[in-house]
Amino acid sequence: MARVVRAVRGMPNPRLTGLGSGLFCAAVMTLLGFLDELLFGASLTVYGVLFVPVSLLTALWVRRGDLLTAPVVVPIAFAVGLVPVAESGDGPAGRLMGLVTALATEAGWLYGGTLVAGSAVIVRRIRLVRRRAAARNRTPAA
User: Fold this and answer.
1) What is the pLDDT of residue 122?
2) How far is 56 from 4, CA to CA, in rounded Å?
3) Is 82 a residue whose pLDDT tops 90?
4) pTM
5) Distance separating alpha carbons of residues 38 and 121, to the nearest angstrom
């Protein structure tokens, strides 16, 4: 158990702004979308499975002041990264129809990843509020 704790503490722990977390999530999901297309033939299930840990990392790496942005940027990044994976027909209308269809059929993964990000943000926010209250209670009254 101590090894696991040391390994987790040794991992990178960046703090991204709201915009940075959105860019991070969108860039990673786009990269994963292209890799999914290349390696798995544009499997929407693989893309959805990969979306959940990216959502969690985004929620864990956003700074405290921008916590509420994580559940907002995660679904946007899902849609952005879905572009290379979605089936495309002829022209822009066909590409748009493929994207809308992929969003509709993969809504479960979209909601799941957003729920994971939202839950992580809520837990982080509760811990932050408790820490602030404990620090306020420790300070002697003047």
Assistant:
1) 96
2) 19
3) yes
4) 0.84
5) 33
